[in-house]
Amino acid sequence: MTSAQVDREKEHGGDRAADGPAGGGPAEEGYERGLGSRQVQMIAIGGAIGVGLFMGAGANIAKAGPSIILMYALAGVVIFFIMRALGELLLYRPVSGSFAEYAREFLGPFFGFATGWTYWLMWVVTGMAELTAAAIYIHFWFPQIPQWVSALVFLVVLFGVNLISVKIFGEVEFWFSMIKVTAIIGMIVIGLGVLTLGFSDAGETAAASNLWAHDGIFPNGIGSSLMTLQGVMFAYLAVELVGVTAGESENPEKTLPKAINTLPWRIIVFYVGALSVILAVVKWTEFSAGNSPFVHAFEKMGIPLAAGIVNFVVLTAALSSCNSGMYSTGRMLRDLAANSEAPTIFGRLNSRKTPAFGITVSVVLMGIGVVLNYVVPEKAFGYVTSVATAAGIWTWMMILISHIRYRRGVEAGRLPASSFPAPGGALFSWVAVAFLALVTCLIAYDKDARVCLYVAAVWAVALAAGWQFLKRRNPAIAQRAEREYASAVD
Hints:
Layout: H1 3-16, H2 37-47, H3 51-54, H4 56-64, H5 68-92, H6 98-107, H7 109-138, H8 147-164, H9 166-197, H10 222-226, H11 229-235, H12 241-244, H13 252-261, H14 263-281, H15 293-300, H16 304-338, H17 356-375, H18 380-411, H19 426-445, H20 451-473, H21 475-489
């Protein structure tokens, strides 16, 4: 731990004493270590399977054709670099507010402040996206129910789940993830059966040649394929959630590396494998935005019952991500409060050791998604996903740059080496930084997606103003900022 960290621990030691130690290592931080190995593993798996795949893939397929498989694979490689960088940091110092803590330590206190609040924003707007998707899926069975009604019901139910205890959250997330994993494997098996045995209504046209026969792998050009990367990266949001669980995992030194190392297999099976099978069974020209490619594929096969089952699965995927969002927002607000960067009330735990007030405020703001579903139901999903992607890119950037700074400290002998070093060291982190910069440029080029950059600019101004307000109100923060910045740039 750096000297600046030690100073910060002394400053806040009294505030944290009631809840347990925080910020220094694998201490419990007042939380209940109620997430077992099987739950952490399934949370990690579930984080790689969300509404961005089940619903967002439809629009991406329509834009990129079969090349969308390559886009998901390329982004998946970069995501693995990000997760290995995070894994090295987590085993160096596993804490619940991991992203903000590492940015605070290696880049300076403002970056910790900005990362914590931005990650919180990401999950608030992601929760809106997932509520929107869940409401759309309900239309499959009950088209007469307004989207905003379904979104509101789901919001209230998941709010109750998160207030009870982390064990209940972990168990609900375990079964949500189990449903998603089982369903995707089942879809792959059925799709392969259609391809090899030719059964179902799609059997006559299903063929591997569908992956290249209809105007090639890049039917709309490489440029159109690259423009899907914004939506593709949204599909991977939440893979870093395993880092937030560090403070509540029973054995983070064992469970976290295992969860991260299985990521390539999850990407190969759930993204590359599933999309390859679907696009071989149904040609890419039949998919469109706003419809799940998985549901459409089973409808094309003439198996309506299966389409209903798949719709249920994608519904659980959306609810799973929203559930995770509520979990993350409360923990991130508590980390900010522990560093005097948010109102102290966010730092309190209820009798069940959950940050109830932070969760409650976040859920209230997620309710804006209900309003969007009422005002602009046809555009709600696109608006919130673009904002969530921009916030996610910032978070991933902070992880990567913190990792680069950490490796520099290890090489200089100032910091202890992690027991889970990232392959390629800082080199692959630089590669991932360059890729994320490319995605940001593509977002700026896309007239529909660039709205998120306008939101990001407003958010940056708000963060800068908030930080200046904090320093004026609390001189101790300003003094700590100077010390920690000096330590970070050393």
